[in-house]
Every structure is written in structure tokens, then in C-alpha cells.
Amino acid sequence: MNVRLLVFLLLWPWAALAQGFAGLGTEADGFAVPERGHSPVFPADHGPHPDFRIEWWYLTATLTGADGREYGLQWTLFRSALKPGEAPGWHSPQLWMGHAAVTTPDSHLFAERLSRGGIGQAGAHATPFRAWIDEWEMAGDMGGDMVLSAGGRDFAYHLTMRAKGPLVLHGEGGYSVKSAAGQASYYYSQPFLEVSGSLTLPEGEMPVTGQAWIDREWSSQPLAEDQSGWDWFSLVLDDGSRVMAFRLRGSSDFTSGTWIGPDGHATALPDGSIRAEPLATAPSGTGPEVPVRWRLAIPARGLDVTVDALNPRAWMGTSFAYWEGPVRVSGSHGGRGYLEMTGYGDE
Amino acid sequence: MIGAALLALGSHWRRHPVQLVTLLLGVALATGLWSAVQAINGEARASYAQAANQIGAGGLDRLRRADGAAMGLEQYLALRRTGWQVAAVLEGEMRLGLRAVAVTGIDLLAYPDLPAIAESAAAAEIAPVEALTAPGRLFAAPALALTLQGEPGLPPVAATNALPPDTVLTDIGTAEALLNRPGQISHLLVLPKQPLVRTPLAEIAPDLIRQPASGAQDIARLTDSFHLNLTAFGLLSFVVGLFIVHGAVGLAFEQRRGLIRTLRALGLPLRLLTRLLLAELCLLALMGGAAGLVLGYLVAAALLPDVAATLRGLYGAPVSGALELRPVWLLSGLGMAVAGTLLASAQALWRLARMPILAAPGQRAWGSGRLRARSQLLLALVLLLGGLAGFALSGGLIGGFVLLGAVLMAAALALPPTLSVLLTIGAARARGPVAEWLWSDMRAQLPGLSLALMALLLALAANIGVGTMVASFRLTFDGWLDQRLTSTLYVTARDDAQGAALADWLEPRADAVLPIRSVEIDRAGTPLFVYGIVDHPSYRTHWPLIARSAQDWDRVMRGEAALINEQMARREGLWPGDNVELAPGWSLPVAAVYSDYGNPTGQAIVALERLLDRYPGTPNTRFGVHLAPERAEGLADEIDATFDLPVGAVIRQETLKARSRAIFEKTFLVTGALNILTLGVAGFAILTSLLTLWTQRLPQLAPVWALGLTRARLARLELARAVALAAMTAVLALPLGLVLAWLLLAVINVAAFGWRLPMYLFPLDWLRLIGLALATGALAAALPALRLYRLPPAHLLRVFANER
Question: Does A82 contact B132 at a Cβ distance shorter than 8 Å?
């Protein structure tokens, strides 16, 4: 998921200014860089890391409504630093961006927020944990009870969440490699959240329950130069296992992932151990055609499943655009999850 | 055939280059002045549109504090945290020497779609990091950017054409540092995309009011009157210019009668001939129009800086002083040239099309006059009544101009019959054959000269009217300035704290320190500025009240009543004894009305305590300081040395007066220049008319010459005749000019600016103008007279020999 940052920086609203950022594409420019052997420390690392260029608090949830329908939900807070460090007031170089979305089988509603740090309009605290932008908020105890809220012009949601399992460190104890050349990030997850709450949709209120997954990641190094996009899966299988898997598309694909047992025991899946193969594409709404049906195989774990988008038109037409939506899993395992795809054009 | 005919027709211009030049000059003058005015108006309107776009404020509602004070960051955050999508804006003024520059700081991140920023950032390749973090970037129009670049201590400047002049746009973080107002927000823009769920404004921020999007269209509305004035002037010049064209075309057609007769006799169909002449006219119109556009551009470029200064001074309207060439302007200018030329030539063309093939040369003179005079008078009367009806029906500025136009046209139409009557009276009193001949000859010449004389009448009347208005205004304004500006020094502090310190410091050093505190109240979309004052004798003795009531000052000072300015009084029909609603739920009786020239908006004055009761956050940064004038300089220096004030924060009374006068002088400079040009054009029209008549004159003069009048005497009489006609026209123009002046002062001004001026008469100016008219007539007649004087007698003899 690391790759989002590049697009965030490149496709800033002032699109014409992208050149200014292009130079930042491959270098860390005074920002701190992830170091192998370093692991996240909690609760401190729930908070922001202003010396790293980019960071996010990323939540996706697969939900079932009182009407029996399936829903998907996204809540994301990005931090992107124009310069390392912090400055008071409006002069803060820390920019924050929020994305929120609700996906139903036949609609996809999303919203975006922008702010800068320093004035308190957006930010994050480690203890007590709280991440917010405007009225959107994710707060509580990463290992216990939390609340989540956001909304846009045509939707809103409010959820309470409870952690049913431990935090999971990806890669080598939270040090997650993103390319053969060694680009990396710090990356951990809370994939064991049980949620309940309500969605406010154009049709009205809808009580929902389901599973949520929080990703936390920060880094300063974007992708390798030849990497054009990625496909990222977070799946909650019926047997209680969780799978995080991604494929970075480049001159040669780079895959990585984590197999998470029902007890939270995590096993890294090294490059080459995951096969992800698009089976069918479909129009994504306002975006380009994207693969909406995948074959995902992890032979070492006996996983060979078909992943289908709940709603192919889950295009996030935000400042930087991408596809993000809930999926169904069938085949060797059943389950539900989230899929994110970037680099298919129109971004 | 066509080629030969064209060659024949064209040969006329080769043989009469002066005539060609006259015609082209006429078209050029008409088009030039008209398009100059259009160019100025176009530039101004483009500037307004740019200003409206700049903040995109046109379409966005605003939130501001009801008491007019700045809000803090907490309020912005509170709104944001409850779902309100708002963008923070901090506005202020930065002084660069004597020049004030408006600074608009806006949260660029919250409103990245802002056109001015998106465009200029793209053009200047400014990265977000540069615009958003210290020291930031300033965006300004190229001319201003150049000035700013020379100023020490300012952030780097990016030039952009997307901004109006005199405005600096920047991120709010940069603006608060620039204006030294950390943490302050002037108002919030309510962004288009608001979330589904949002706390109501009344719960989260009860002290904020939501101001509906009004946009910078306000400026356009305010300045409409000014532009209408200019347009009227342009139109007048255009009409006067057309008189020249009419004269020149008439002359050319007259002289080509023989040629045309020959061509037709040779078999050229009349229809084809008419078309060829039409094509020739269009070509000449385009040539003259092109020259006119060049002229118009030059005139506009010369006048624009003054107009811009006027608009800025009068309305705070940002207008660029640099002229841009717009295709629409070029096309409409050429269109006007062609249309005008054809209009002015219609009569000549019409006559030609109906001319019998072997018609005798036009020895038209007497005859058919009476009928024509009667219908002209009738038409004038209809026009006048129509104008009055139009004014009664629509009223306002447009109605005023309709009436003005009708009066002018009616007067112009009535001129020839009136002159004819005068000449008849003159003829009846004439003694001796020469005098009798002179009078009746003048009458005979009248139809040919009438259009030129109408032009002269209009130009003179406009001169008298506008001159009277300007002079009346100047006189009134000077007196008013003396009354209004009574403090010796005017001081502006950076903020309230400094203001308080300044007031304390000044107290023992001055005779009196009067706070000047005001709030802007949005009253159904139009701003009203309410000032709070403390009691001081200078107000009671000097303030220029034009309508009063008993104990007016006492009642105002006790907080029981308010003073309002003339604009508001006239606009809303409020006079002493009425109640004025200053804000919702805040009404006070009107104690008196004061004149308030140069201010487009409504204004009211109440006792300071009353203002502070309602608007406790009213800024306290401006003071009027009373002290002996000779101490002013010293105290000003002392203030500068003691307080860290922006440049230009201490202004002496004389400076302020001079500045105010300068603004109006600029306005008058423009009207004055147009005035002189119009008069020049009118003189030129007379010249061309006389030249046109010249060919017809010989057959009329030859018999008189044969009867024994020398050529020298005839030439003198020729001159005298022109001067006499000009003098009669000038005398008739005087009452017309005064009517015009009255209309301008009592109707147009009230509708346009909201104030009415007393009318002062300046007989010396009239004398000068009449003299000018006589000189114009004499000058115009000089060339024909000289020609006559030098005419070989053989030419006169030939008149008897060959009938043309």
C-alpha cells in the first residue's frame, strides 16, 4: 500500500505543479527512512511521524446491513509532509488528506478532505489514540474499543469497533520491503475489529455489523522508478484467518504479503509466493476499466480463490484517483475483503 | 464596365485628396472617440470580472462576525470540527509608500480550485511547498509584482495575469505575517460541497452571520453610472463625427453629379452604379474606421490611467491602467464605422438613386423650406414629449439619459427653423440692398449648413452643461472638504491594542483626539457603514448637513437619533423625522442628512456608545487629531518615531484634501478632454459643410459680383456670415447648455451617484465659449473665404457662360 504516497504527491490538486514533486520521486530529501531491524513501538507509533514523508491510518470494513445486503466502508487519513518536521499554525508543512467511502452493490459514495497540520484541523495523537480531519474521527484503543465517523455530501457513517485480536507486524517485524531494490516502509495492522453502527445513505439510515481492518504505514521512499501501480488485497477468510497480499507492477512484478492465523500469528509471504492474476475487467464508473475479478493463489498455504468486486464501479474520483472496494472470496476458501488497485490510468 | 466605372469614380478622389482626407478624418474621428470610450469601458469591465473571479467570491456565501470584528482560529476549527466546509480568508491593506495594496490571504489548501491561484501557480510553476510554507509566495498582477519585487522584507512574488491590479493574493499563513495579524480571520467562504450531516450555524457559532453570495458584481453595479456617462459622451462624439462624414459625402456626390450623369448616359445601369458607390463608401468607412481605431486606442490609452484612478478612488474598483486589445472591440469599432458612414451617406445615396438621368445641376436654394421647418419643429416637439414621458416612466439614470438625449435631439432639430425665423426677422429689418441680400442669402444657405450648425449647437451645449457641472461640483466639493475634514492629522494604528496606546499617548499632546470607528453592516445585500462618534464642537460647527431637524446634534449624541448621508437619504427616501433601520432590529430616527461626495455606499453616524453597545468588536484603529496646523508636522514625526506604524499611517489634512481633489480632477480631466475634442469635431463639420456648399455658391455669388461687389467684400461677407450663424447658434446653445447642466446636476447625478449639487453659474465661461464658437465659425469659413478672394474673375464669368 506504500505506493499511494507517490500518487498523493504527484496528483496534488495543482496538477500542473507535479514537476516540482517529480524530483522527490526517488529520494528521501532529508526525511527519515525506515531502517531494517527497527520495529514499531506501541502506543507511541500509533501517532504521527512528521520526519517521514508520508503516513496513513487506513481502515476498510466489510459490513452486512439489517436488510441483509453487503456493504463496504473506507476511512483513510493520509499525512504528507512538504518538508520534514513541524511548524506552528498555518505554516505547518504537514498536509493531511482524508478519504471516506461507502460502497453498496449498486452505489459508491465517497468524500475527500484536505487540511494542514499546525492549526489543529487535522492530526493524530498516540495516547489516547485519535486521528481526525474536520469532523471525521477514528479514536479509542487500538487493542480495545474504538469509534469511527465520517461523511460526505450524500452519506455519513458512525461505527463503534472492538479489537478481537492483536496488532500484526508485516514484513520483518514491521519493516515491509516494497521492491527488489529495497524500498521499504514501516507497516502494521489491526485486522481483528468487530464493528457495528449505522450508515446514513440517500435511502435512509442502515444499521450494520461486520469486520474492519486498520492498516498503519509510514515511509519516505516511494516506489522503485519502474513500478507503475499495485493491486492490494486484505481478506478475512471464513476460517478466521486473514490475508494481506499485494502485487507491485513493474518491469518485473514484486509480490509480498502476510498470512495471519485466527490467533493473530503472522507469517510473511516473500516475493514470488503469491500469484495474482486478473480474470475479467469492467468499467469502474468515472475511472478506467479495471480488473474486477481475480485469481489469487498462495500455494504454500493451499489458498486458491477467486476474488470478485462487490461493485465494479468503486472508483475513488478524489484528488488522486484509484479503485477501492469490497470483494467476495470463493474457491478453496470463502470470505470477504477489500481490494485496492492503482496505476490503471485516469489518475 | 465595372472596372471603367470604378476608375472613373475613383478619379474624383485623386483629384480631390483633401476631400478624401476630410471624409476619412470624419469617419476616423467618429469611430475614434466612440471606440476610445468603449475601450475604456471594456477594460474596466474586464478588470471587475477578474476581481470577481479572483476570490471566486461571486458564487460563495460568507460567514462573518455580526459585530464586524475579525474572528479567531478557534471559531474556524469549531466549524470545521462540526462538518462545515469553509475556507478561511484574511483581508487587509498593505502600504507601499503612498500606495495602498489590498492583501487577500486565503487558505489555499481548503480552496485549491481558486482560479487565480490555480492559473498563476501553474504559470509560475510554484510548488505547493513554496506557496504553503514560510516565507510563502505572493501572487500579483505583473505591474504590481514588479513593484513588490523591489520591496525589502517581502516573500518572493509571482506575477500572474489572473489577478486584478492592486491586489496581492497569498496563502493565509503568509498574509497573517504580512499584515501582522496572527490567528485572525476576516471571514469564511462557505465551500460548495457541504456534508450531509452538519451542526446548524446558530448552535455552533451564534455570533456569525451568513452573508449570501453577492459577488464583485457590486462594483459593476456601482460603476455602471460612470460608464454610462462615458458612453453617452462617446455617442455624442460619434454623432458629431458623423456630421463631418455627412458633409464630406454630400460634397463628393455633389461634385460627381456630372460624372454620374455621364456614366449613366454611357449605359451604366443605375442599380450597378449605386452598388459601386455603396462599395466605395464601405471601403472608405473601413479605412477611416481602421484609422479611427488607432486613434481610439491612443486616446483610450492616454485617458485610461486617469479613469482607472477615478474608479479606484471613487468606488474602490480595481481597474488596470494598461489597455488590452480585444477582438470584440476591433470588430464593433469597424462595424460602427461602416454603419455610421452609411447612415451619414443615406441621404446622398437616396438622392442619387432617384436622380433623373438628365437632371440639371442642383441649384437648390430657396423653396420647400417652410414645410420642412414645420415638420422639423413637430418632430422636435414629439421627441421632447417622448423624452419627458420616458423619464416619467422609467426614471433613474436611464430615464435621465433618455430625457437628456431627447432634449438635445429636439433642440438640434428645432435649430434650423429657429435660425430661419431669426434670419427672417433680420431680413425684415435690413436696410439697403447688400444687407437684404446678405440676410436672405444666409437663409438660403441654412439647409446646407444646418447639420453642421446642429453639431456646433450640441458641442457647445455639452460644453456649457458639463462645464457648469464640473465647476459647480468643484466649488461645492472644496467647501465640503473644508467642512468635512476638520482634524489636522489622521492616524491609523495596526490593531486595537496599538490604537489604544496611540490614543493615550496623543491625549496630552493634542487639542482633541477623536476616534473614527465604523462597522460594515450588510443590509439586504448592500453595505452600510455605520460610524460611531464622540461629541466634539468640530462636528457641530462644521459637519455639512443639508437637511436638519431641531436639536439634531443633541439627539444624536444622546443616542436617540442617527445622521445619514445624502446617498442613503435619496435612495431610500429617508429624511429628518423618518426612521432608519440600520440593522435588523436596530432602528433610529433620522436627525439630519449630510452630504457625502465621492462615496458610493450608504453611511450613517450614531453616538459611539450606541455603536459599541451593538458592535463591541468595532475596530479602534483610526483617529482624527485636532491641533494647531503648525504643530502637525512635528507631531506626525513624533508619532512615527514612537510607534511602529505602517508607512502612510499618519496623514495630514492637506494631503488628504489634495488626494480627494486629485481623484475628482482626474474625472474632470477625462470629461474635459472629450469636451474639447467634441468642439473640435464640430468646427471641422462646419468647415466641411462650407466646402460642400462652395460649388453651389458660385452661381449664387456670380450675379452679386457682377452687380459690383468686389471679391474682397464678398469674402469678408462670407466670413461675417459664418461668424453670424455661429454666434446665433452659440446664443441658442447657452440656454440649452444650462438645461443640460441642470439635468446633469439634478437628475443624472442624483441617479448615478446619489447626491445633488447646487448649480452655480459662470457667465465668464460662457463668454469664453461663445468666443470660441465665433472663432470656430470664422476659422471654418476662412478657407472658403480665402478661395473666393483669390478666385480668378474668369471663373465667376464662366458661371454665366455655361450652365453646368
Answer: yes
Beta-strand (E) ranges in B160-242?
Answer: 167-171, 184-185, 187-190, 208-211
Which residues from A are below 8 Å from B133, CB to CB? 82-83, 87, 91-93
Which residue, A258, A332, A342, is CA-closest to A295?
Answer: A332
Choose among B121, B134, B195: nearest Cβ to A156: B195
Report the phi/psi class of residue B489: left, alpha or beta, with left for phi > 0 and alpha for psi in -120 to 50.
beta
Subunit contact A21:B127, Cβ cutoff 8 A:
yes
Nearest Cα residue in chain B from A90: B173
pLDDT tens digits along B447-456: 878 877 887 8
Residue with cell 446491513: A65
| Residue B319 contacts residue B47 (beta carbons within 8 Å) | yes
Closest by alpha carbon to B40, among B234, B257, B255, B292? B234
Question: Hey, is the C-beta of B203 within 8 angstroms of any chain A C-beta?
Answer: no
What is the per-residue pLDDT for B124? 63
Is A90's CB within 8 Å of B171's CB?
yes
When CB atoms are compared, the residue of B172, B183, B197 closest to A156 is B197
Given a contact cutoff of 8 angstroms between Cβ atoms, the answer to whether B543 and B648 are in contact is no
Cα separation, B787 vs B781, whole angstroms = 10
**Contact assignment for B132 to A95 by CB distance below 8 Å:** yes
Min distance A28 CA to chain B CA atoms (Å): 15
Cα end-to-end span (Å), chain A: 16
| Whole-number pLDDT of residue A330 | 96
Peptide linkage before A105 cis (omega within 30 of 0):
no
**Sequence ranges of the domains in chain A:** 4-21+42-341
Least confident of B119-128, B275-284, B325-334: B119-128
State residue B655's pLDDT score. Answer: 77
Q: Sort residue A176 into left (φ over 0), alpha (ψ -120 to 50) or beta.
A: beta
For domain A4-21+42-341, the CATH superfamily is AttH-like domain (2.40.370.10)
For residue A13, the chain B residues in CB contact (below 8 A) are 112-113, 118
Nearest chain A residue to B73 by CA: give it: A119
A151 with B83: Cβ contact below 8 A: yes
pLDDT tens string B114-138: 666 666 666 666 667 777 777 888 8
For testing the chain B interface, which of A90, A109, A115, A149 should be mutated: the one with the most B CBs within 10 Å? Answer: A90
- Strand pairing category for A335-341 and B62-65: unpaired
- Asked if A14 and B121 come within 8 Å (Cβ–Cβ), the reply is yes
Give the other-Cβ count within 10 Å of B652's Cβ: 17
**Residue B578 in contact with residue B563, Cβ under 8 Å?**
no
pLDDT at A3 over 90: no
Mean pLDDT across B11-32? 84
> What is the ipTM for the molecules in this complex?
0.88
